[in-house]
Design brief:
By secondary structure, the protein is an alpha/beta fold. It has 14 helices and 18 strands.
């Protein structure tokens, strides 16, 4: 049976295809529509999924629009009860709803390596919930999830961060990651931090936005500081929970705050999937029905044929310090993980400035890097959270700062993609690169320019005029 999972209507639309209980395809809408963070499912994606896998017999949706409509009346977003259905409902009649936070939790748990664990979901808002904590229950081969804690609207860590993103001059529900990068540029203005902290403690409704009487450049650092204070309190409560066995799954849009994720190191084992925001919930809403474990494999999108060009990558890095790669299936989620990437040589000290100019990004934006798991402790402190999908930052040792400054953000951290044994292409690439150059890193950034989605098909590569793409 062919089943589809759908996220659509708010932001970060996505579609996945299951053949019985096997996930065979998943993509973010923007890759097909070429509209950044597209909230709808474009017709070319619908037709592609039908052509490749056949018509769906079941379609599941990542949240309950009826309950969401009730909350919108309560919050003042709508004056009357009105169910606003996204465009996908124009093409299909029988679409089954799923609880928003259950979709998040299911995606996290059923792709995780754990049998028993706690699952933490934090985002801006689902129907009503903004934070939930779940425990996994296992009976032989049967799995289930039980909710054991929740926050309800308007109390929301995600809404606080999005409101500060907007107050900083960035686009909410899209550019929180840019504000996170900006938070390391300017020293904290303690008055601004106190303003945000005071609003949180007074249970201010950040959903309506926030006006802070200050320079907008002072907001990012203070917003990140308050976010981390609240996040650490949440973590302590989860650690102290009687159901905690050391295994944690973390999902929801807040799991994309890679700076704060470093505080998860007090758990024995942490898993954050490749697409923890709403995009991944298209998979989660199906998994909430199948309740079967699947691979965490992030390479699920449109495929560009060809062998992975390891020798050519190294040749071009040595020759011109950077090269684009578009091979294999596209990554599911916001991170380029090697199949739709621009690779850079970190031995070039000015590489960060060069790449930011090529991509049209702000000067302060950092880049991620790939490193083999066994090399990690030689170059970074406080190793605790395994990060195969660039979901955590690590504090660099002095030797790393001195030798590879293009890897280092203003706060002396790097967002790392840690390569174990699951991706042999990248493992072989890094091993060969290190053998030839002595360098254990390759800079890895998405194959796109600012404001555009990551490249998907061969046609998308035509806009890169001054970059060799293999």
């Amino acid at each position: 049976m062919i089943s589809w999972g759908i996220t659509s209507g708010s932001h970060d639309g996505s579609l996945c295809v299951f053949d019985n209980s096997e996930l065979v395809f998943a993509t973010d809408s923007e890759r097909f529509s070429r509209i950044k963070n597209d909230k709808e499912i474009p017709i070319n994606l619908i037709e592609y999924a039908k052509k490749q896998y056949g018509n769906p017999q079941k379609i599941y949706f990542y949240e309950n629009l009826n309950i969401k409509a009730e909350r919108k009346v309560f919050s003042g977003q709508n004056l009357k009860y009105e169910v606003n259905k996204p465009i996908i409902f124009d093409y299909f009649d029988d679409i089954e709803y799923t609880d928003h936070h259950l979709s998040h939790a299911s995606y996290g748990f059923y792709t995780s390596p754990f049998e028993e664990c706690l699952i933490l979901v934090i985002d801006a808002i689902g129907e009503w919930e903004t934070l939930t904590l779940w425990e996994s229950k296992v009976d032989k081969t049967e799995y289930d999830l039980k909710k054991i804690k929740k926050w309800k609207y308007p109390k929301s860590l995600g809404l606080m961060y999005s409101a500060c993103t907007q107050a900083s001059g960035f686009k909410p529900n899209e550019e929180e990651y840019i504000m996170m990068g900006a938070s390391s540029i300017k020293p904290e203005n303690k008055k601004v931090t106190e303003m945000i902290r005071d609003l949180w403690e007074k249970e201010f409704n950040f959903h309506k936005g926030v006006e802070l009487n200050c320079e907008i450049n002072d907001i990012p650092s203070s917003a990140q500081i308050v976010y981390e204070e609240i996040f650490k309190d949440i973590i302590k409560e989860v650690i102290d929970h009687k159901k905690n066995n050391g295994n944690l799954v973390f999902c929801g849009g807040c799991a994309l705050n890679v700076k704060a994720n470093r505080f998860l190191k007090d758990f024995d084992n942490v898993y954050i999937p490749c697409n923890p925001g709403d995009g991944g919930s298209s998979v989660g809403c199906v998994l909430s029905r199948t309740r079967k474990k699947i691979s965490p494999n992030p390479y699920l999108g449109h495929e560009i044929d060809g062998d992975y060009p390891i020798a050519e990558i190294i040749q071009n890095l040595n020759k011109s310090s950077m090269v684009g790669v578009a091979k294999g299936k596209a990554e599911f989620g916001p991170r380029a993980l090697g199949n739709r990437s621009i690779f850079g040589d970190p031995r070039v000290h000015e590489l960060k400035d060069i790449l930011n100019t090529i991509k049209g990004r702000e000067f302060f934006r950092p880049f991620g890097a790939m490193i083999l798991k066994e090399d990690l402790k030689d170059w970074y402190h406080d190793i605790g959270v395994f990060s195969p999908y660039m979901n955590c930052v690590y504090t660099a040792k002095d030797i790393t700062v001195q030798k590879y400054p293009s890897l280092i953000h203003f706060d002396k951290t790097t967002r790392l993609q840690i390569i174990d044994n699951d991706n042999l292409n990248l493992r072989n690439l890094l091993q060969q690169w290190k053998k030839e150059t002595g360098c254990p890193f390759i800079v890895n950034t998405s194959l796109n320019v600012k404001g555009q989605p990551i490249a998907n098909t061969k046609d998308d590569l035509k806009s890169f005029k001054n970059l060799i793409i293999l």
